[in-house]
Amino acid sequence: MHLPLNALRTFEAVASRLSFTKGAEALNVSPAAVSSQIRSLEERLDEPLFHRQGRNISLTAAGQALLPGVHRGLAELTQALRSLEEDRAGGVLNVTMVPSFLQKWLTPRLADFYRTHSEIDLRINADTNLVSFADTDFHAAIRYGRGEWPDLKASKLLDEWTIPVCSPEMLADIGPIDSVEDLTSYTLLQGDDELWPTWFNALGGPGMHRRGPRFNDSVSIVVAAEQGLGIGLVRWSLAAAELASGRLVRCFPHVTKSDFAYYFVAPPHYFDMPKVAVFRDWLEECCRVFPTPDMQDDPHD
User: Fold this and answer.
1) Does residue 165 contact residue 227 with C-beta atoms inside 8 Å?
2) Among 35, 108, 221, 273, whose Cα sits 20 to 30 Å from the Cα of 213?
3) Domain of residue 77, CATH code
4) Is 294 among the domain residues?
5) Which domain does 49 fall in, by range?
6) pTM of model > 0.90
7) What are phi and psi of 286, to 5 degrees?
8) Are 233 and 166 in the same domain?
9) How many CB atoms lie within 10 A of CB 198?
10) Within a domain: residue 69?
């Protein structure tokens, strides 16, 4: 059976707008060409698809029945063609992720990827909002969560922990912190994620504590702690480099594993695309060799 794709595409443009003129504009053709395509499709189906009352049109029962299938079929065809065009080992690879992960964990490692995979033009978007893969040209994302995103494939990259840290100068000034109760006496840096209440609750500590400056992103808390503004409860992945260099120190031994982790996420039709798989494999190897925090003995366990 020969499918009249041009006529179906014209029908979808007109039916979605209920206007021959607007349908013609969307297709960049003349209204006469649109009318001809609709007429040929109606003759082929031996069914009228539109009620015509002057310049006003509405869908007939046949038109209403046909539109969802045409819309779905054209969308799937467009996606299939896009996938075929991009299904190669090299070229542009668009990835989105939260800014904190990009700044503190991924960026220091990217030189290795560019050096070993120069055939891939990696383009990174830093955004706290979840992107819609259906409405954008992103191939994949790195997300922080529980690994459950509808209609997407997800592969865990990194577990995460939260650790209290401060500058070495601050710890030298205040001295050792021996208990959860002692910790509440100091300025605690606050974030929009409200990690402190959960952390105190996990240790059976007090619910109230001395609040310090508030920041709306995780990296700022790491920087503020490094500058001696207070004690920050930070993600291990974001502060590991500062701890290794001595710019930050752990001021209390307890480490709490987060319920969230970092995941590599992509639509099923992109997940195993060669260039996507290359980037995913490289990420997984970087994560495999990334150390977990030292579980120091906690005198309160």
Assistant:
1) no
2) 108
3) 1.10.10.10
4) no
5) 5-86
6) no
7) -60, -40
8) yes
9) 14
10) yes
The tokens 């195993």 sit on which residue?
A: 272
- Alpha carbon distance 170, 228 (integer Å): 6
Alpha-helical segments (H) within 119-186: 168-174, 180-183
Q: Structurally, how many domains does the chain consist of?
A: 3
- What residues contact residue 222 under an 8 Å CB cut-off, 6+ apart? 104, 165, 232, 234, 238, 239, 242, 248
Give yes or no for a contact between 152 and 138, defined as CB atoms under 8 angstroms apart.
Answer: no
Is 295 inside a domain boundary?
no
Query: What pLDDT shows up at residue 299?
Result: 37
Does 75 share its domain with 184?
Answer: no
Question: Is residue 300 one of the residues assigned to a domain?
Answer: no
Kindly report, residue by residue over 188-223, the tens digit of the pLDDT.
999 877 788 888 888 877 665 567 888 988 999 999
Rounded Cα distance, 97 and 104, in Å: 12
State yes or no: pLDDT of 300 exceeds 50: no
